[in-house]
Write a structure and sequence with these properties.
Blueprint (H helix, E strand, L loop, with lengths): L1 H10 L2 H18 L6 H21 L5 H20 L3 H27 L6 H28 L4 E3 L9 H12 L7 E3 L2 H38 L1
Antiparallel strand pairs: 1-2
Helix pairs in contact: 2-3, 2-6, 3-4, 3-5, 4-5, 5-6, 6-7, 6-8
Length: about 230
């Protein structure tokens, strides 16, 4: 059984599982919204995704030790945050989670850029990388509103603490340059984060995605000529 499972893993890149887990996490946010068990369910799924993130890094050109240095404290902080409301703990959890998401996203970009062959693995990696970047910036926004209350406000100018799914929605709209404008950055930290995310989103699409599309077209044209 172990040999068959290892053989299966050799045929399928972990980024496919990572992408599926990220999408599942989005669905779970909607399913458990408003329930008391929401934090526990999301935290448990987040830990699973964390393990997958490290797994992806181990299969890419990135350095394994750095991933584990980030993953181990993130894992314990994620567990402790289920039972604690301490703001200092949440600040460190947000920063380490953001760093790990960005590091994993960078490792997947390196994986996609290392050769001139476009595989199914790399298309899954492209989708997974986009979600990783969105999660990373969402944790930066979470850090911002805990570290500096009032740094994020509603469109009306009113302040309140936003849930993580609201911050994730803000992150996705900024990364994709959609900009729904229902949440505004009110201080320097989130404003810089928004600008960086918009820059990263445009750069990711124009450099990484366009490169994959261009290489895929070249391969198709070459096959047609043959």
């Amino acid at each position: 059984m172990t040999g068959k499972f290892q053989s299966f893993l050799q045929r399928v890149h972990p980024s496919a599982f990572l992408f599926a887990a990220q999408l599942l996490l989005l669905v779970m946010f909607a399913i458990v919204d408003g329930l008391q068990i929401k934090q526990a369910v999301v935290s448990i799924l987040g830990i699973v995704v964390l393990v997958l993130r490290v797994w992806v890094v181990r299969q890419s050109p990135a350095v394994d030790s750095i991933a584990w240095i980030l993953a181990i404290p993130a894992l314990f902080l994620s567990i402790f945050s289920i039972f604690s409301t301490d703001t200092t703990l949440l600040i460190w959890t947000s920063l380490i989670e953001a760093t790990l998401y960005f590091y994993t996203a960078g490792s997947l970009v390196a994986y996609m850029m290392e050769d001139d062959v476009v595989t199914t693995d790399e298309w899954f990696a492209a989708g997974a990388t986009f979600t990783l970047l969105a999660w990373g910036f969402a944790y930066l926004y979470q850090f911002s509103q805990v570290f500096q209350p009032g740094s994020l406000v509603l469109g009306s100018g009113d302040f309140r603490y936003f849930t993580f799914v609201e911050l994730l929605s803000l992150s996705f709209t900024n990364l994709s340059a959609t900009g729904l404008s229902d949440i505004y950055p009110a201080t320097a930290i989130p404003r810089v984060a928004v600008m960086l995310e918009q820059f990263v989103g445009v750069g990711y699409i124009t450099i990484v995605i366009s490169r994959l599309v261009g290489m895929a077209k070249k391969i198709k044209d070459r096959d047609d000529d043959d």
